[in-house]
């Protein structure tokens, strides 16, 4: 009788350990998908050079986000945008990139480049780069 209880206890412990390991592996893999964006998010106004259109496009493509993601989904990955244009039907989130900066802010007279996320009815439709 003791042997049977011991076996059941070991089986339960093994099941719990396997579940915890699986949970840990899944949560770590999700976290690593967003790691490059810690630098992106920290690069407010694009002063540090971490905001790259290639990184944004590859992430959008790899995760099949076009037509499948809302504004809040994009903000969860890329952080708050530097500018927002449009209205609730058609909106653009603009992230400054490769800016010439002084004291952590873009210089007023310099050219500005933006990475633009375009939404229609809160669905991501495109991503592009705009320089002015």
Descriptive overview:
By secondary structure, the protein is an alpha+beta fold. Helix content is 43%, strand content 25%. It is built from four helices and six strands, in the order H-H-H-H-E-E-E-E-E-E. The protein has a four-stranded antiparallel beta sheet with strand order 1-2-5-6, with helices on one face. The longest helix has 32 residues. It is elongated. It starts with a helix and ends with a strand. About 9% of the residues have low confidence.
Question: Which helices and strands occur, and which strands form pairs?
Answer:
Blueprint: H1 2-33, H2 36-42, H3 53-62, H4 71-78, E1 83-86, E2 90-97, E3 101-102, E4 105-106, E5 113-120, E6 123-131
Antiparallel strand pairs: 1-2, 2-5, 3-4, 5-6
Short description:
The protein is of the alpha+beta class and 132 residues long. It contains 4 helices and 6 strands. Strand 3 and strand 4 (105-106) form a beta hairpin.
Give a quick set of tags describing it:
132 residues; alpha+beta; four-stranded antiparallel beta sheet; two-stranded antiparallel sheet; 4 helices; 6 strands; 25% strand; elongated
- Helix-strand makeup class: alpha+beta
Q: What is the molecular shape?
A: elongated
Major sheet attributes: 4 strands, antiparallel
Q: Rg to the nearest angstrom?
A: 22 Å
Nearest-integer average pLDDT = 83
Q: Could you name the ranges where pLDDT drops below 50 across 5 or more consecutive residues?
A: 22-33
Helix content: 40-55%
Reading side by side through the largest sheet, how are the strands ordered? 1-2-5-6
Number of strands: 6
């Amino acid at each position: 009788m003791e042997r049977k209880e011991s076996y059941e206890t070991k089986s339960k412990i093994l099941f719990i350990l396997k579940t915890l390991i699986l949970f840990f592996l899944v949560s770590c893999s999700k976290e690593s998908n967003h790691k490059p964006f810690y630098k992106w998010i920290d690069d407010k106004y694009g002063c540090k050079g971490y905001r790259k259109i290639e990184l944004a496009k590859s992430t959008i493509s790899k995760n099949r986000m076009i037509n499948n993601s809302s504004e809040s989904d994009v903000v969860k990955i890329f952080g708050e945008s530097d500018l927002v244009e449009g209205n609730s039907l058609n909106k653009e989130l603009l992230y400054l990139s490769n800016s010439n900066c002084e004291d952590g802010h873009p210089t007023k007279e310099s050219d500005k480049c933006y990475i633009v996320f375009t939404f229609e009815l809160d669905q991501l439709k495109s991503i592009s780069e705009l320089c002015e």
